[in-house]
Amino acid sequence: MKALEGVRILDMTHVQSGPTCTQLLAWFGADVIKVERPGVGDATRGQLRDVPDADSLYFTMLNHNKRSLTLNTKDEKGKQVFTRLIETCDVMVENFAPGALDRMGFSWESIQEINPRMIYASVKGFGPGPYSECKVYENVAQCAGGAASTTGFVDGLPLVTGAQIGDSGTGLHLALGIVTALYQREHSGRGQRVLAAMQDGVLNLCRVKLRDQQRLAHGPLKEYSQYGEGIPFAQATPRAGNDSGGGQPGRILKCKGWESDANAYTYFITQAAVWEKICDIIGRPEWREDPDFATPPARLPRLNEVFEAIEQWTMTKTKYEVMQICNPLDIPVGPILSMQELSEEPSLRETGTIVEVEHPTRGKYLTVGNPVKLSDSPSEVSRSPLLGEHTGQILQEVLGYSAEEVSELREAGAVGQEDCTS
Ligand code: COA
């Protein structure tokens, strides 16, 4: 039995943030019914298409293990079906623009009346406040949540990161809120509203930068490279380049082959506890005792010199050799791995973190499987549904409509025609 078996999710999500959340719940065993507009579906089905007429990787990689029902929730008969779905499901998840569900005629109050046990979970760009009505996308959230102002180099532009901390990060936060609300419902018998705002989620992930904002009031941030370089601090937490956030100086350094390989680099942390070992491997044993280098405070104004010397050594090794040499010595290093390398990494295939999936219209593709492993609830990855693939099945088996009623709903345009032939 899967951890969330028996939990039925009414999945009104689209694009990335909401689908990330419901995909996780599906991997943990929930029955996720994705409701999409007839004939249209989640807009990502057609975005960034690589194979003509096939659902895009954007869609397939975010919607595994779900069923698809096409339903016009603005049509009167469609609203009746939607009401039955609310009655039947445990959790409703949505990430529409603010107010969209109210405009369909389904306010939180009316949803509670239909099903007092319903957990109604939403992703929005902002929480209540001046921006609560705004539509928000990934990079907007990264900027509004503090990530961009603290990413990049001190003398350069704010930068967004490739990790989708606004969309997927908020989806993760929402999933935790949902399972917490399900747990509380065990005792209270009542559902509740769950909100994860993208700005809040990004800010939560930038917690250490708010820490540094407050530390600034008590003097310069000495572990930031700019301190050693004599660059004065302004009033806000600055961009820290590739400095490590934990107070131990770290940088990205060139490795063998860097001239032709954009990812021949390693992250290297000069952790105080292993300083002597670092001195030995880079051929600077004299720095172990030298008062200019022997202690962390003495090294702070000389970090450029320190890392240049380390880089002279890392440039003689591949990023993997650096790891092989440093790991047994407890020197923290990390190779910069490309998407190509990750997709070919056998250990990730073995754990199910990278999975090959067969899809009827696009063929085989790679995806990231469930990154959270439960010993009693292993996740299998099954392909994303075609648009409306399960409409008839859900209407009959879950909601109890007869075949005739399903035909009537189709003729009325309340549900889609997509799976008529199946
Ligand atoms: N039947 C009928 N109508 C449907 C429907 C269905 N099954 N599913 C959606 N719709 C309607 C909605 O009700 C809405 O109509 P309205 O404008 O009359 O209220 C319309 O489709 C479009 O929804 P909307 O959410 O406004 O889409 P959008 O493309 O304009 O905006 C976002 C996209 C992502 C910007 C917006 O949804 C948003 O800000 N979401 C919250 C934050 C978020 O999750 N952002 C990250 C996305 S990865």
Explained architecture:
Helix 6 (138-144) crosses helix 8 and helix 7 crosses helix 8 (198-205). The mean pLDDT is 96. Strands 3-2-1-4-5-6 form a six-stranded parallel beta sheet, with helices on both faces. Strands 7-8-9 form a three-stranded antiparallel beta sheet, with helices on one face. It has helices at 17-27, 57-60, 76-88, 100-104, 108-114, 138-144, 167-188, 198-205, 207-215, 225-228, 275-281, 296-299, 303-314, 319-326, 339-343, 346-351, 391-398, 403-412; strands at residues 8-12, 31-36, 66-70, 91-94, 119-124, 193-197, 250-254, 265-269, 333-335, 354-359, 363-368. By secondary structure, the protein is an alpha/beta fold. Helix content is 36%, strand content 13%. Strand 1, helix 1 (17-27) and strand 2 form a beta-alpha-beta unit. The longest helix is centred in the middle third of the chain and has 22 residues, at 167-188. It is built from 18 helices and eleven strands. The two termini are 29 Å apart. The structure holds coenzyme A. Coenzyme A (COA) is lined by residues 15-18, 35, 37, 71-74, 95-97, 100, 103-104, 123-125, 135-137, 167.
